[in-house]
Structures are given as C-alpha cells and as structure tokens.
From TrEMBL:
<protein>
    <recommendedName>
        <fullName>Tc1-like transposase DDE domain-containing protein</fullName>
    </recommendedName>
</protein>
<dbReference type="InterPro" id="IPR038717">
    <property type="entry name" value="Tc1-like_DDE_dom"/>
</dbReference>
<dbReference type="Pfam" id="PF13358">
    <property type="entry name" value="DDE_3"/>
</dbReference>
<dbReference type="InterPro" id="IPR036397">
    <property type="entry name" value="RNaseH_sf"/>
</dbReference>
<feature type="domain" description="Tc1-like transposase DDE">
    <location>
        <begin position="12"/>
        <end position="179"/>
    </location>
</feature>
<dbReference type="GO" id="GO:0003676">
    <property type="term" value="F:nucleic acid binding"/>
</dbReference>
Length: 208
C-alpha cells in the first residue's frame, strides 16, 4: 500500500465577529474582516494514493515526533494486512526520527540492532536513519521528496482542497469545533469526492 503523508500545522480557529451577508443577484457574499482568534490545531493526514481517500487524519494541538509516531502506528495497525508499505514524505526532521526507525524495524521478521541515537549504528544521525528508512528491502519503505519539492507529494493537493472547501470561508468558535469540522470534512470527502489524483505534469522543464 502507498500512502502520501504530511502535516498541516497552525490551522487557525478564527471566528468572524459578524455573520456573512448572503449573496443575491448582482452581489457576492460579503464577509466581516474582523475576527476572534481561538488558537490553532495541527493536522497530520495520510492519503491512500490508490483510492484517493484519506486513510487516516489526526488533529491535535501539536505535531511532534510522538504525534507522528502515534499517527503512523495507527495507520499501520488499521492496514495490517498489507505485505508492504510505501510512505511518501518530505524531508522534515521528524520524518527521519528515531521513532520512525523503530516503527519500521518492528515490522521486520528478524530483530535489528539499531544502536544509540547520536552515538552509533542506524540511529546515530539523520543521514543513517534516512538510509535505513529508504531501504527497499524493508516492509516499510519511506520515499522522501527532494529538498524544496514537497509539492510533489500528493497530500498537498488534498490540503489545498481542504483549504478551499472548508477552512477559507468557515468560522470556528473554538479549537474543538475546528477539529470536529476537519474530521467531518474528511469523512464527507472520502464518501463523496475521493478518487485517485491524475498527474498532468510530464517532467518537462518549467523554464526555457
């Protein structure tokens, strides 16, 4: 199974101080520019590339290494019948963390000596951890997008849908409401809109 994963931190729970004035013939919707800020939430989402559905979405206050570990661990558990997992992610430091290495090594039939973080072995540095995570012989293989090219990750397309369909025009009275609305949108998207993304970029140079 192939999953496209990334985080969307700092999603603001903004409440408009006045309701929108509805559109009518010859006049678009009018929105109040002043708002009340109720804090932020962080979204971690994994897209099933084959189906186009969001396989797992986690909304919480932070997006730490532990948050990512819990998300990926749940993703693997919910799809434990898969013989092999491919995760497409950018080069964020938490994506090359000790937690990710331990998750990958736990899927292997034989126990692997990982060493100690910052000292020796596979866990010694971000470079050694990335080499382990990208090993194609493992059951869990991570594919890192090139530096400054995270836009190649398909989950970014879904994030843009989330912004356009929900976040840009909505008003949220609390962080809890923002979290609930995001998860409700994920369920709605999976049932009514999801389909595999069709790539149109053919690898041609973008400049002459």
């Amino acid at each position: 199974m192939t999953f496209s994963l990334d985080e969307m931190p700092g999603i603001q729970a903004l409440e408009r101080t006045m309701p929108d004035i509805p559109m009518k013939p010859g006049r678009p919707v009018k929105r109040e520019f002043e708002y009340i800020r109720h804090g932020t939430q962080a979204l971690i989402a994994s897209l099933n590339v084959a189906s186009g559905q969001i396989a797992k979405a986690t909304v919480d206050n932070t997006r730490t290494e532990k948050d990512l570990e819990a998300h990926v661990s749940g993703l693997l558990e919910e799809n434990n019948a898969a013989k092999k997992y491919h995760l497409v992610m950018d080069c964020l430091n938490t994506h090359q963390s000790e937690a990710m290495v331990r998750l990958a090594s736990a899927l292997e039939e034989e126990q692997i000596e990982l060493g100690a973080k910052g000292k020796r072995g596979i866990l010694k540095s971000m470079v050694t951890r990335a080499e382990f995570l990208t090993n194609p012989s493992h059951r869990l293989v991570v594919h890192f997008t090139p530096k400054h090219c995270s836009w190649l990750n398909q989950i970014e397309l879904w994030f843009s849908i989330l912004v356009r369909k929900l976040l840009r025009r909505a008003s949220f009275k609390s962080q809890a409401q923002l979290k609930r609305r995001i998860l409700e949108f994920v369920e709605y998207f999976n049932h009514t809109m999801a389909k595999p993304f069709k790539w149109t970029y053919r690898g041609k140079p973008l400049v002459a």
